[in-house]
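[User] I have long wanted to understand how a fold can be written as tokens. Those tokens are not coordinates but codes from a learned vocabulary of shapes. Could you go through the record with me and say what the backbone is doing? Thank you; the sequence and its tokens follow:
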Amino acid sequence: MINLWPLNDLCLKLTNFIYQKKTFRIIDHHYIINNNMTDVYEDRVTSDEYKQWKKNVPFMYDFMMTRILEYPSQTIQWLNDGIEKIDDDPYESILQRILFGTNTGAFNEDNYLIVASIALPGYREPPKVDLYNMPEDAFGTFIHYNDQLEADFKLYHNGPVQCARSMYGKENIIATRNHNDLFIYDIKDCLVDYDTAGTTSPILSYPNLNSETNLEWNHETSGLLLTGYDRNQVAVWDLNSQKKRKTLTTKLILSCDDDGNDHVGFIYDASWHQKHPDICGASTLKGNILLWDIRSNNVKRPSHYFNGHKGSAFQIKFNPFSEYVFITSGSDCQIAAWDLRNMNEKLHSIQLKQEKFHTLKWSPHCETLFGALTNDRKVYLFDMDKIFDSLLPQEIDNGPSTLTFIHGGHTSRVYDFDWNHNDDDPLMICSVSDDNVFQIWQMSNKFVTKDTARLDI
């Protein structure tokens, strides 16, 4: 049964309440209140689009759930340390854990790293519904299901949790970052400390990281963590050589230039290769794409260095199935696909009007499918398998042929999203936005290429 969970009506009520923002300017020493009609118009458009999206949810999704968090979360990740079945449940529901944090902002309250259990339906069968002969009051309704969000525990965090990532294969080890500091938590140790002393603390930390790049654990080598370091450098940390309750020490510092000059600018993102654990890459302020081999005797210069985007390069992500393909995004509003064997030319580029994509994530189940975020309120899904698909004249304005799906369930900027690694839910995604909204959703499999060999749906 297709399970479409009810949307929380609070979302709609929040979007219907339009704030009329006012700005002030000085003319001839007199203060004049200037009603910002542009913001009011945008809020109304957002509200109308949300209402339209909500009506069409039953036809676009196989699964949809919306919850309101106490505070916004800037990070989200599925934990895959075990999936539990709920006893005596007719829907054969399962419990899966999810990792997120808080950003209390101007409230100046304590921030926490949170692990919560999510109840997901395990039994699905298409309902027998005649969509062409439905009563008017049934349009846009949902099949009810117990969608309670249960917080397993929360750990005190010094400052807002801007990024949190669990280690592959050891989900109890979590790396987090606030504005400037790096922390390593062991969930098991934290729970023991909390039971005995009522407090929690990281097992390792590093102050003044001076970088706001994402954190990424190595997929092949346990304990290797990649972060930005001091604006124009990348740091490799090895937890296998660290002592508990001590300050973190770097294993390697990967530099951009051995002459000490800053030719590339600030590093926006750093990422591990998914097939070769000794290769990593970075994207920079000046549009450069940098690649290192950490086995090299000289890591003060990248092994490969080229200009990938006009302006800045925001993200770099390696394909989890192919050892050669990776994608990047930049301020030129393009997502570019590259081949490690020939980086003189792009394999393909995707441009969606004037949207700047700042977050990219490959699907762990399909080698051609990836998601992307911009500064707006939507999550975009692309399928590279549709590069050569032809578009009808009326479809050209909607976007490129690779644009497979647009999730429009958020009414504010989406901070982060993550693909579920559970093989039973290959298209399930969770996302969080800055208006405290947390969503779990799964687009209908009719939007995905049916002959994709690596995706069994």
The first strand starts at residue 22 and ends at 27. Residues 1-35, 134-148, 452-457 have pLDDT under 50 and may be disordered. DSSP finds three helices and 32 strands in the chain.
